[in-house]
Write a structure and sequence with these properties.
42% of the residues lie in helices and 17% in strands. By secondary structure, it is of the alpha/beta class. Strands 3-2-1-4-5-6-10 form a seven-stranded parallel β-sheet, with helices on both faces. α6 links the parallel β5 and β6. The chain is globular and about 65 Å long. The chain starts with a strand and ends in an 11-residue tail after the last helix. The chain binds nicotinamide-adenine-dinucleotide. The site of nicotinamide-adenine-dinucleotide has 32 residues, from α1, β2, α4, β5 and β7.
Length: 348
Amino acid sequence: MKTILVTGGAGFIGSCFVRRLVSRSNIRLINLDKLTYAGNPDSLPDDENHELVVGDIGDSSLVRDLLQRHQPQAVVNFAAESHVDRSIDGPMTFVETNVLGTCRLLEEVRNFWNGLNESSNEAFRFLHVSTDEVYGSLGDTGLFTELTAYAPNSPYSASKAASDHFVRAWHHTYGLPVLLTNCSNNYGPYQFPEKLIPLMILNAVEGRPLPVYGDGLNVRDWLYVEDHCEAIETVLTRGVVGECYNIGGNTERTNIDIVKTICRAVDRYCPDLPHTPCDSLITYVKDRPGHDRRYAIDASKLRDDLNWVPNTDFSTGIETTVRWYLDHSDWVERVQSGNYRRQRLGLE
Ligand SMILES: NC(=O)c1ccc[n+]([C@@H]2O[C@H](COP(=O)([O-])OP(=O)(O)OC[C@H]3O[C@@H](n4cnc5c(N)ncnc54)[C@H](O)[C@@H]3O)[C@@H](O)[C@H]2O)c1
């Protein structure tokens, strides 16, 4: 039986990773999550191989206790504040969790790893999940490679860049067996509806305006969340210690293109809505300060070294995602009403 300590596993990507691994009979998952607004127990499986522990990655004594008690063979760190707009409104939480929290976690993991016997010590891995946003913004051409210099532009990306540097430093200074992944924009089921794709799906269905920043021509590379989790598992099991791996979907789309694609899907699935065609709801709004123009990932290292390529093309992934939000009104309702947090607040 292998034990993995997952942090931030009640969020969008972490919960996908938990749902993916929990069905394997030989894996036990300890899921440390603070249950901020972005953490949702409704997204988690009820399974004897999965235990949710509500707590902070920056709580050193809690992390120490979990490591000692469960003796994991790996730690996968998803925990983060993750929304760029929130980082503009309130950057300090991003520094607290993404920078200090990651450092405190690294320090406890290092102490635990130092105490392992030789074979466990060699097999142990710490995988840090990061973003392509650390590389800054591209012009009309070019791709981010693992050698692209970091140039973060938002408080979110700066805090993730800092955490990546500390992860690297814990490897180079102390020898901690780390792996680092930098992924492009994810989409799929269970994403909190403040992010572009779920926000647009739900607003389109509900007949609310579809706010698009600036001219709508900012470009992102989109990856289906299950493909991201498969890539993380690939790096965790076969990645070279100390290495970084870019993960991307090779699917560049402008924001306005994404919104129009969603509108067409909602028009098709919900032809009786009074406000169709939904693209009549598109409303251009003042651009986000410091909005990066284009991100695009070169994921050839992961393809060539570890034989990973994405499985889900964008048209299939976006159809599945729109359908999922239409079919899971119970999950959506509990998020929109705030009821998903009642358990966290001790009300359930
Ligand atoms: N969403 C994307 O498109 C994307 C792309 C690339 C990389 N990433 C990275 O992947 C990771 C997961 O992203 P996501 O979209 O699932 O984010 P999310 O915001 O949906 O989830 C983050 C989770 O972390 C938890 N958390 C926050 N602070 C914590 C703390 N101090 N201690 C313990 N748990 C805490 C939250 O409760 C939540 O469950 C993040 O590190 C993010 O930077 C995200």
